[in-house]
Amino acid sequence: MKLYFVRHGETQTNKKETISAADDKLTSLGVKQAEILAKRFSNITVDLVLASPYLRAQKTAEIINTTLKKEIVSTKLLKERKWPKEIEGEPLQDPSVTKLLNLVRDKSLINPKWHYSDEENFFDTKERARLFLDYLNKFSEKYILAVAHEYILKVILAVMMHGESLSYEIFRNFFLFTKLDNTSLTICEKKENDRWRLIVLNDIMHLGEIK
Q1: Distance (Å, rounded) from C-alpha 210 to C-alpha 104?
Q2: How far is 201 from 14, CA to CA, in rounded Å?
Q3: Please, how many CA atoms are within 13 Å of residue 127, restricted to the half-sphere of its CB?
Q4: pTM > 0.85: yes or no
């Protein structure tokens, strides 16, 4: 199986640098990014499209699918990590946001199952990533596109690499080391009775014309 991961196009919260929420929408640039990526997929074989149910991922998948013309299957397993309701939509540089995020980080290093309020903690997200990889086994298609979000995509990649041994500390280092731009293309492959392997990470060559 070959898996094409795509992060959604630029959103309002990406542009304003605020904490994202489920109803975040693509900007005009985000739509343009997805349209350019759709052209690139005219030369890539895809049998099935999976997408997060969040609007920004759905819209990105729909735009790409104008080229692919395949079935789009929505799955909550690909939704973005939910942050505490207290900071949704708030500026990333706000001191109160920074303080809360630092608290989440520090507590997670001690106990990955810790909750501040209604957020999804690292343990929750790691389990959802594992379930997504299991979910892929139900499909016979060999070439699958998955349109989702930065955090959950990085968790999936880290689980592919480390499996059950993935800790919050390891993941945090992985998260800070890697980059997934809007509409970037990341490719992983798994051959029969083999492990997942990373082929391409954060390919944005198609965006050259709008940078």
Answers
A1: 36
A2: 20
A3: 7
A4: yes
